[in-house]
Amino acid sequence: MVRESPDPTISIYALMAYYLRFLRVQKKLTQTRVAEILGCTKGQVSKYEGGTRQLDEAECAALDKAWDTGGLFTILHGYAKLGVDPNWPAKHRRYQREATEHYIFASDLIPLPFQTEGYARGLLEAGHAAGFLDDIDAAVKRRMDLQAAMLDGQPEIWAVLDEVVLRPMGSPEVMAAQRARLLELGAQSHISIRILPLSAAPHIGMDGSFKSFTLPGRRLAAFSGSALGVGRVIDDQEEAADVVLRFNRLAARAWSEDQSREYIAGMSEDS
Fold first, then answer.
1. pTM confidence score
2. Of the four listed, 136, 141, 170, 211, which is most buried by Cβ atoms within 10 Å?
3. Strands, E assignment, the chain
4. Inter-axis angle of helices 12-26 and 72-82, to 10 degrees?
5. Mean pLDDT throughout 143-162?
């Protein structure tokens, strides 16, 4: 089944998808032939043309060379990385559900997939008060459903949480339950939770939270930001690998799993 090309006016990534199909058809090439040029599968070409997956830098260079475009795809790719993909929320949620490995650095909030319902509700109530959402109960259910999907299948989860995320974000009861949840999850063999102490600052995570995903087929992806409803999904393999390196550098400065558990448990005892 041939995927329909996205509206080329909505983003540069959509424009790239549109022109990939436009030029392929103009040159009377099959998706199989384009797959040979890119070194991928026909199914991946279909996703590229449908805008559900983005070309990376090496693939853009391969198209430019094969089709003598004057660097069109490489230039568009460079501009696309600077802009915002309007489809990022759906893509981010899909990667959260599908990932076999998660690398999470949280700089300000307890992240999914670790939030209790009480903690999540508090965050969403703040969003409701600010006019960002209407139905709190529905939003809580969506968040908890996504969290359950992320944990389903026991993916490997490696998380580094800035000590700041443990500050009170609700009643003592809500925070006690949230700390207990962290301890419960951190005791599982496929989940690692480590605290980056305040004493580690300044560090390369000061500019915000980010995540990296290992997807089926060992493909990498990453996500950064979400301030003011704007986030960026990274599909470029080289850039996504750099995000993993960034995570590892932060993890090297974090407390061990045992030290982190002791600290979280000590907070509960002091409350």
1. 0.78
2. 211
3. 101-106, 156-162, 191-196, 210-215, 219-224, 232-234
4. 160
5. 97
Average pLDDT, the chain: 92
CATH 1.25.40 fits 88-270, yes or no: no
CATH topology of domain 12-82: 434 Repressor (Amino-terminal Domain) (1.10.260)
pLDDT band for position 22 (cuts 50, 70, 90): very high
Whether the ω angle into residue 113 lies within 30 degrees of 0, i.e. cis, is yes
Number of Cβ within 10 Å of residue 36's Cβ equals 14
Q: Kindly give, in sequence order, each residue whose CB lies less than 8 Å from that of residue 44, ignoring residues fewer than 6 positions away.
A: 35, 38, 53
Q: Which two tokens stand for residue 51?
A: 């805008």
Encode pLDDT of 229-251 as tens digits: 678 888 888 889 999 999 999 99
Handedness of CA 38, 40, 42, 47 (dihedral sign): negative
Average pLDDT over residues 168-196: 97
Sequence spans of domains, the chain? 12-82, 88-270
CA neighbor of 58 nearest in space, from 217, 182, 239: 239
Say how far apart CA 248 and CA 223 lie, in whole Å. Answer: 16
CB 100 within 8 A of CB 80: no
